[in-house]
Design brief:
binds cytidine-5'-monophosphate
């Protein structure tokens, strides 16, 4: 796998025309794209099909969270769409439903979202969760491993502990990545691409520093070079 294959570019853009423009400007540097809520209801699924047909990898960031049977049927439908990564919340029944729905599909990897980075200890407490955040992340990573999921989404802060515990059994996909000098935007805790890789991240998710750059192809290439050199 090359460094470019480990860079997932988040297409958080208002419509598919803007996304298609960004994809064509990024060119060969972009091998793996993430489609989430912003594009999903307005043509994002067709865009995912087009990207797949063009040989790109596709991360469907749908964060499913429902009873296991419903998740199972939803994931069966996602398999018909085609995609490489799909997120679900890292709860045991949700993960089990997703893994069952994926069945023998060798392509679609199931990723468990551990704890959203927008949540801190105070927010968890308010919801009645009195476990330390790093312990909760590891517990949910364990749910993912036990269910037979392929990986987790986790911040670079937690990547090392997840890798230490689960090794290659779980792929770690890490957002909140910013090259030195780039704006943090609304990300609270950011790390550089090299630091994320050194922490154990297998894949990095980067959005605005690439899609909003004056030269998105160079921005993506620079991040890939940093991944390669880490
Ligand atoms: O533009 P930026 O690089 O901040 O985009 C990061 C992407 O990763 C966004 O699509 C965001 O929703 C996603 N993400 C995140 N933090 C998480 C999970 C997903 O930033 N914990």
């Amino acid at each position: 796998m090359t460094a470019n294959d480990r860079l997932i570019i988040a297409l958080d853009l208002p419509d598919t025309d803007k996304a298609e423009r960004a994809i064509s400007r990024i060119g060969d540097a972009g091998r793996f794209y993430k489609i989430g809520y912003q594009l999903m209801p307005i043509g994002g699924l067709d865009l995912a099909r087009r990207l797949s047909a063009d040989g790109k990898k596709v991360f469907l960031d749908f964060k499913f969270h429902d009873i296991g049977a419903t998740v199972e049927r939803g994931v069966q439908s996602v398999c018909k769409l085609g995609g490489d990564f799909l997120t679900v919340h890292a709860e045991p029944d949700v993960l089990k439903g997703a893994v069952a729905g994926r069945g023998d599909d060798k392509r679609l990897k199931i990723l468990g979202v551990t704890v959203l980075t927008s949540l801190d200890a105070a927010a968890l407490k308010k919801s009645g969760i009195h476990v330390d955040l790093p312990d909760l992340v590891l517990r949910r990573a364990e749910f993912a491993a036990e269910a037979g999921a392929d990986g987790v989404v986790a911040s670079a802060q937690e990547a090392a502990a997840i890798k230490a515990r689960f090794g290659d059994a779980l792929q770690v996909v890490t957002p909140g990545v910013r090259p030195a000098g780039a704006a943090a935007n609304d990300q609270k805790r950011v790390v550089t691409p090299a630091a994320a890789v050194q922490a154990g991240a297998d894949f990095l998710v980067v959005g605005r520093p690439i899609v909003e750059a004056d030269d998105p192809a160079s921005a993506a290439a620079a991040i890939a070079a940093e991944i390669a050199g880490a």
